[in-house]
Design brief:
Blueprint: E1 2-5, H1 7-14, H2 21-32, E2 37-41, H3 42-54, H4 63-74, E3 78-81, H5 85-98, H6 104-115, E4 121-123, H7 127-133, E5 141-142
Parallel strand pairs: 1-2, 1-4, 2-3, 4-5
């Protein structure tokens, strides 16, 4: 199966003290074991680093440790999907048409990346918001 990973799942899978760690780690392990193929947005790479180095996790994650986590536990398993200028414009247009504002744009960008691949599931811990932004993908969006 082709799985698209939102930042929320990547962060949860990277911190043993995160409340959603067990299910996120199981999803990531399915990639390592070759059961599934993984995808993520290019933006998730930066978001994952930002959250790992700033979230109130115990113990705190040092920037060099965050980079090591990303290099060892995420990048070898997950293909990165990039967006072009036309994708950004379309995502902003969709946001404006839906009357959505603020940080939802980042979730819209993740979803646009997911749409560029043959994705079977979009894994996120923000299921309701993702389904609201992409009702045509509703059946594919779920928590791991």
């Amino acid at each position: 199966m082709n799985l698209f990973f939102d930042t929320s799942v990547l962060v949860a899978g990277s911190s043993a003290t995160h409340v959603h760690h067990p299910q996120a780690l199981a999803a990531l392990r399915s990639l390592r074991d070759g059961e599934n193929q993984g995808w993520m947005s290019q933006h998730s790479l930066a978001e994952t680093y930002a959250i790992l180095t700033s979230a109130p996790l115990t113990p705190r994650i040092h920037p060099s440790d965050a980079m090591r986590i990303i290099e060892r536990n995420i990048l070898p398993l997950i293909r990165i999907v990039a967006l072009g200028p036309e994708d950004y414009r379309a995502a902003i247009s969709d946001m404006a048409a839906g009357g959505w504002q603020s940080g939802k744009i980042y979730d819209a960008l993740h979803l646009r990346c997911a749409e560029k691949q043959p994705i079977d599931r979009v894994y996120t811990f923000n299921v309701r918001e993702f389904q609201q932004l992409a009702p045509h993908m509703r059946e594919k969006i779920c928590a791991p």
